[in-house]
Design brief:
single chain; 68 residues; alpha+beta; 25% strand; globular
């Protein structure tokens, strides 16, 4: 998995960002036609907040699993 530089889902992520006029976008792919992967397009200030955002997402997912 390449963490910096061109990736297999970069064009899709660019399209998502452009179509939504977003400051940033993240695309996560599971079992896609090019395999698993992800792409992130954003300014550094947004990317720098990703660890906290992802940790909160993980916490929320864990909580929702135990509530089912």
């Amino acid at each position: 998995m390449i963490l910096n530089g061109p990736g297999k889902y970069d064009e899709l992520c660019r399209e998502v960002q452009d179509r939504t006029n977003a400051r940033g976008a993240i695309v996560l792919i599971f079992d896609g036609d090019q395999g698993n992967g992800f792409s992130v397009r954003a300014e550094f200030e947004i990317i720098a907040t990703l660890p906290e955002i992802l940790e909160q997402m993980a916490t929320d997912i864990r909580k929702s699993r135990t509530q089912q």
